[in-house]
């Protein structure tokens, strides 16, 4: 039962994101979703009481700001970003961001509350509840389209095999996503996915011979400075934690040796 709330948000959030593409362009959606890490932190802090350091907030805003600067320029003219139905598209993007933030923060809370929960527990619980919700909507709600989808697959078996292959690839990929969440936290996973989208756009621009402007190079610098600073902070934290543990282990030895000298 612990998975039901985040499974609902996980089922509805991506649907809002895909529906938003009917009203805004893909670069505009990337621009809107470049701040995905921010709602993860805000919901984690406000709802679940997670304490983030100032360095983590700074790194998050640098990465989100860099991706925004880069995507804003690559989106081209304002006409590609704005359209008559753009407000609806951006509203759906905001819903997607909020629901994704709730999903990721709740997954963090589950792993913290139940230490025995591992990546595959999360994966099974999320997928079982999500499958139940989506199946109820598709086959019971008016216009759900479940019966039409089944009829289409029966009529076009080649498409059904493609869908099955797509689902298998998604299932394999989910293993890495949930392993990252369970071991490093949802914020790290969100940082990776946001950076991956940014790198894909960057590589595509360079590969296709599209020169980057000064603004875009500034966005690239912001992203990599933010990521490098985040890695350095985690290394410093790990190093200080290791030195403290070594000191604690060595102090009882010193006290015991001192007591032995007193006895002699």
From TrEMBL:
Keyword Membrane: yes
Keyword Membrane: yes
UniProt keyword terms in alphabetical order: Antiport, Endoplasmic reticulum, Membrane, Transmembrane, Transmembrane helix, Transport
Polar residues: compositionally biased ranges: 239-256
Annotated GO MF terms: antiporter activity; UDP-galactose transmembrane transporter activity; UDP-glucose transmembrane transporter activity
Similarity section: Belongs to the nucleotide-sugar transporter family. SLC35B subfamily. Belongs to the nucleotide-sugar transporter family. UDP-galactose:UMP antiporter (TC 2.A.7.11) subfamily.
Record protein name field: UDP-galactose transporter
Lineage: Eukaryota, Viridiplantae, Streptophyta, Embryophyta, Bryophyta
